[in-house]
Amino acid sequence: xxxxxxxxxxxxxxxxxxxxxxxxxxxLPQVAGAQVARPPMPIAFxxxxxxxxxxxxxxxxxxxxxxxxxxxxxxxxxxxxxxxGHLTKTVEAKLSPTGDFRLPLPGFTTAGEARLSYQKEAADxxxxxxxxxxxxxxxxxxxxxxxxxxxGANANTYLAQTAHQAAHDDEARQTPDTxxxxxxxxxxxxxxxxxxxxxxxxxxxxxxxxxxxxxxVRQQQQAIGYEWASSLLSYYSRQPEARRRxxxxxxxxxxxxxxxxxxxxxxxxxxxxxxxxxxxxTYGFTQLNGPDGNLPTGPTAGRRLYxxxxxxxxxxxxxxxxxxxxxxxKVEYEHADIRPLxxxxxxxxxxxxxxxxxxxxxxxxxxxxxxxxxxNFTLQDASGKSVSLSDFKGRVVYLDFWATWCAxxxxxMPASLALRQKFAGRDVVFLYVSLDSKTADxxxxxxxxHTPTPNAVQxxxxxxxxxxxxxxxxxxxxxxxxxxxxxxxxxxxxxPHPSARPASDEALEKALQx
Length: 514
Prior knowledge:
It comes from Hymenobacter ginkgonis. By secondary structure, the chain is α+β, with helices and mostly antiparallel strands. 39% of the residues lie in helices and 17% in strands. The chain has 17 helices and 15 strands. Strand 9 and strand 10 (386-388) form a beta hairpin.
């Protein structure tokens, strides 16, 4: 699991709360085995009065609103997803002296998703042509105060409330994903089924008292199903290494039969929705990877990859997007060398836009593929001494980008220590680069929890993802691991994690060979 800044995951953060849905969720049966903590009641916030303008159906939607106690001068709205769901158009408006704004969306001709952004806050919206949606919030209390009026208010209030409920469920560890690491596959399926039914009941109850577009209700029902499927697909990837070794994470025969039963190959129209794109991304990284969790290798790797994808997703656009997403993410986030798979990609892919995007990514990331010189950087260690990557030429370097706020990073630290101890006295350096923006957080962790060994070096870059080291290595998510050979060239851009033993041991042994 990786932490990705600025969002990259199945749960998209959408601001907003409301007492109705939280009360309804509390009244419904809770997921079995979950410990429930009641959320605090939202802060009351009265939106400024608003009168709808009566825009004609079919006209471009307009989102207007008011920001109370503004902390920034502009607000923006993004829409028009591309083939992998990235929003390609953004309109921006300046706030008036009283905090008001107006955002027309030219070219928005079909009902769909949009994303409102204000500083670091964001909310996912559902808009239809002709909507004249008004929203208001307190800049200091975005989630608690976001409120909607006007045409489209009911759908967007539902989205805001369910996002708040999802965040609460996640924090209270009520979701299938937060409990998967300790469950059997059968128990997870039972939990996921119950959680899905609970969410569908909430949607049904809300729709009974708040008129919603029929298309919106269908899409939300599908989104709940997509997130259910994502939880089931990611079961094994969420299992600790110890449970895998001891056989507690075995996936029974027929576990993945739900996937072809969903007939995803018939759902091309859902490709513009974030929940479906997230499911396809989860599918790729849980079903298309090789046994070691990395890009599949071997002379038949491409053929096997496409056979798997075709069996589950058919041979149409949904499969092309899923495979394209998978390969593109491998290049952009892991800098993997996908060139051995390109012949099969060209033979099966039907979409020239996907092919063009992949070619552009390959050109941009060519310098970070295996065999290329590792980019040099210089940072300071805990004593203030400047240390460069090139200082370790002649030794194998296991490079680890991490941060104290990154739970998956910290979960790898005990295994990283064990790896250091095993390779003590050999020509291997474990180089840790902290991307904490606060130097004090890094220093406190190193002083209290880092076990020093002669083959470990701790460095820090307060510029985090915008720092020279992270930019040089194209780091967009953490933990990010790199294996560098004695000659200063990249051996692996995404080596096995420290906990992935014996694969991590074998990778280091191979790099040490003359």
